[in-house]
Amino acid sequence: MSIISFFQIWLQGDSLKPLDRSFAQWFRFQGGPTTKSHPLLKQKEAWNQVRWVIRNVEGWIKKDIEKIHCPADFLRLARKNLATLESWFAQNPVQNSGAGTQKYFSPPWLYKFFQNRLNHPLPAFPQFLTFEPGLFIRLNGPQHLESVTVELAEQKFTLTKPAGHFGFPQGWCWEIQGHRSAYLLETHQQGRWEIQDWGSQAAILKLPLRSGQKLLDLCAGEGGKTLALAERLGTKGVIWALDIHANKLEVLKKRCGRAGFFTIRPLAWDGDRVPSLGKEVPKNLFDGVVVDAPCSASGTWNKDPEAPLRTFPSDVEELANIQKHLLDEGWRNLKAGGHLLYITCSWMIEENELQTEAFLGRQPQCALISQEYLTQPGGGLYYTALFLKKTD
Ligand SMILES: C[S@@+](CC[C@H](N)C(=O)[O-])C[C@H]1O[C@@H](n2cnc3c(N)ncnc32)[C@H](O)[C@@H]1O
Q1: Whose CA is nearest to atom 7 of ligand 1?
Q2: Which CATH number is 136-195's, of 1.10.10, 3.30.70, 3.90.1690, 3.30.300?
Q3: What pTM was estimated for this model as a whole?
Q4: Which candidate, 348, 351, 352, 362, places its Cα nearest to that of 385?
Q5: Ligand 1 mean position to 294 CA, how many Å?
Q6: Closest ligand 1 atom, CA of 344?
Q7: Ligand 1 centroid vs 245 CA: distance in angstroms?
Q8: Across the beta sheet with 334-344, what order do the strands follow?
Q9: Mind listing the pLDDT tens digit for each residue in 32-51?
Q10: What local confidence, expressed as pLDDT, does residue 28 receive?
Q11: What is 198-389's CATH number?
Q12: Residue 224 CB less than 6 A away from ligand 1
């Protein structure tokens, strides 16, 4: 069956589903190898074709593009133009995909939005959307290097150190490539390593840490950064891992169990006020706080080709309000002399520099220690700001 059948199915939904996940489901339905495989790993070429079509979508609904104001508009127009897409496919055999196309997907409203708001040279952004994302891993301890290397080699995965070394600790940040599901490898199931973006690993290193410290991770989610923190902290100390989504914390608990990390305390909260955490953390004051805030994720949109179709300026405004609240709440629970690390994977200044500037304005006791964009090899952008709570 051709890729066009995938698009037909994708466009039938009531809402715009994440393309990556829909593609994995479709591929499985076609008799693809596994259920949990990372689609980029197992069907790189087909996935590239899908990404290529999305980047050209602007072309085949060009005459209507100004009428798109929300994802539902896109779905309606795309369905209406399905015949055009089919004939376009007939004239552009998919085997010729990938190379050569300079087009990128950019609805005009989004383009203007970025033009007005990005503090990066604009040509870089569309180019970035075409980058093929890499797959990075982090070992849960350098002692696992040998067994992991052996299994990856047996399973015909390549394991390389990416460019941009960044002073990663031993065992951190390897890039892997292979043709089967990385998640299903035995050493992964045993909790010896995690899949984690280069930028996510680099970001968490920004927080100064000492053994025995008490840390608060306000947006722990499934625990990508929490586990990295735990690996850095060692057996002494404690990390309270909060998130508003209890189901994400269930995944975090499983990962902690597999990796053998006993310093992490998962807790679901309402996102409003951090509840009292008892005697372990007197007065709820922590040595360090991480706010890995919900954001537009525009810094990782190269993994998510249809994300620009789902994102509008109003979403960024809403997210910026949540980020503001989380920063203030994290600050309230930080000791004098402690550090707060703010992280996003966004390109937008509202979520990054402007957020930082406003925070400094609200908190007179706050000193900005560093503010940085971390550019992942092969695409992917993370923003970090590190704040110190002054003691005087
Ligand atoms: C960028 S993700 C965190 C990713 C995670 N730290 C990791 O490294 O895997 C942001 C998290 O914030 C949570 N979140 C979303 N809305 C929130 C809100 N209003 N208040 C607090 N947390 C929220 C989400 O559930 C999500 O897990």
Answers
A1: 224
A2: 3.30.70
A3: 0.85
A4: 352
A5: 5
A6: 1
A7: 8
A8: 264-268, 238-243, 214-217, 286-292, 334-344, 381-389, 366-375
A9: 544 344 444 344 555 566 66
A10: 67
A11: 3.40.50.150
A12: yes
194 C-beta closer than 6 A to ligand 1: no
Average pLDDT of the residues of the chain: 83
Q: Any idea which residues carry the catalytic annotation?
A: 345
Read off the pLDDT band of 79 (50, 70, 90): confident
Complete DSSP assignment for 12-68: HSSS---HHHHHHHHHHHTT-S-SS--HHHH-HHHHHHHHHHHHHHHHHTGGGGGG-
Contact present, 46 and 3 (Cβ < 8 Å): yes
Nearest CA to ligand 1 atom 11: 219
Give the Å distance between the CA of 293 and the centre of ligand 1.
6
Asked if 338 and 286 touch (Cβ cutoff 8 Å), the reply is yes
Cα–Cα separations (whole angstroms), residue 242 to 21, 291, 305, 325: 26, 10, 30, 15
Q: Which of 369, 206, 382 is nearest to 290 (CA)?
A: 206
User: What does the pLDDT average to over 11-37?
Assistant: 66
Q: Which residue out of 243, 289, 342, 382 has the highest number of ligand 1 atoms within 8 Å of its CB and is therefore the one to mutate?
A: 243
Domains 136-195 and 198-389 share a fold: no
CB distance 219 to ligand 1 below 6 Å: yes
- Token pair, residue 148, equals 């992991």
Distance 218 CA to ligand 1 centre (A): 8
Q: Which one of 207, 226, 244 would you pick to mutate in the ligand 1 pocket, going by the greatest count of ligand atoms within 8 A of its CB? A: 244
Q: In the chain, what are the domain boundaries? A: 3-103, 136-195, 198-389
Atom of ligand 1 nearest to the CA of 220: 6
* pLDDT higher than 70, residue 122: no
